[in-house]
Prior knowledge:
Elements: H1 10-45, H2 61-94, E1 99-100, E2 106-107, H3 137-166, E3 176-182, E4 185-191, E5 202-205, E6 207-211, E7 216-222, E8 227-230, E9 237-240, E10 246-250, E11 256-261, E12 274-280, H4 282-292, H5 306-315, H6 345-348, E13 366-367, E14 372-373, H7 387-390, H8 395-403, H9 405-408, H10 427-437
Parallel strand pairs: 3-7, 6-12
Antiparallel strand pairs: 1-2, 3-4, 4-5, 7-10, 8-9, 11-12, 13-14
Amino acid sequence: MTGPLRIRSGKSGEATTAVGSMLRGSLRRGALLLAASLVLVALAAACAREHPLDTLAPAGPDAAEINSLFYPVLGVAIVVFFLVQGAIVYLVVRYRRRQAGADGSSQSQGPDSAASDDGDDGDDGDDEYPLQVHGNLRLELAWTIIPTIVLAVISVFTLTTLVKLEEVSAAPDDLRVTVVGQQWWWEFQYHLDGNTSTPPDIVTANEMVMPVGVQVPLEITSRDVIHSFWIPRLNGKRDAVPGRTHPWVIEADRPGRYGGQCTEFCGLSHAYMRMYAVAVTLEEFDEWVARQLEPAVPLLEGEAGYEGQQIFLANCANCHVVNGVSDTNLDGLPDEPGIYGGGNQITSSLVSGAAPNLTHLLSRTTFAGSVFDLYENRAKYLRYNSVADRGKLNRGELDAWIRNAPARKANAPDDSRGMPSFPGLSDSEVSDLIDYLATLQ
């Protein structure tokens, strides 16, 4: 058997060596460029000025508990990473493959390597093999016991944190909120007396308003597919599963508007299934509750917005609820929060036949799964409860949404998942409809 073919000398050997060096240089530059590109992509993906999900700035005790666990575990992971990668780099450099020189001799790429083969005995003498060690009991015990101890310590702290996150200090008759996920928005049903087995007192969408310094127990579920509820500055994530209810708690220790996101892939607009937790003072929360408890008053002919109300009832009220005005279950009575209890379509539908409750639409700052701003000057607000009075309604965005919602946010209206388009509405009818929505404060 002949040995590997080598060009030992002459210009051809020098040319081959030069070409090889050029190829290796190109590969190294390409690898560096690829690594830099991946880092830039990762950094760009982490930037979201309009909807930041800041996991490292806790605004509540539960998120602070998670952070207290995260940083030590991160430190251990960094140490382990550099130890493992350092060992790999050392072995790659120390025992890397050698190249044949122009004169045919075997030359090591490492400074401490020695030529041990002339390349003519049929063996590949370009490798310097390390000492082969088998059955080293001390090494095997070390790399088994040490990781086990590290993981055991991390597990103890992890389980302790999980137990703390499950603790509920709220009394049974304190506020509780049922969180309902569906394609592709979030609904919040408020039970002011803490009894989630009865119909809610308040139903809203996209923005969960809560008092500062008060633990709010949640019951998380879904109407269609599996979603996952996550507001990182206030707590970890919890799955929303159809037919099941998962308990969770949330608390903010300072006023603010905290962004959240569905984190379980759930279809076309998963990336646009957002929500906000709005933490306000206890006084502001009581003010908000009092306003939300008031039903809408049907407009009479001749009143501003009446024409739009009729358009709403003819085109939108099959899915959207306006307490005191709409009749989604066609029982001849105006809707009220009680419609969200029992076996009607609002609670039991497996698809998005239930749309956001619009009774107090203008008390929110976003719509369509918190993707679009309801007001043009949201950044100027000082108090959440003043948005309906001080806000400049974003009529252009509402107009585009009503005309062709699927073009603004991907959905499947033909499969009863999402809002359909209304090409049959004239410009004046759309304008009248927006005028009516402007009355839902």
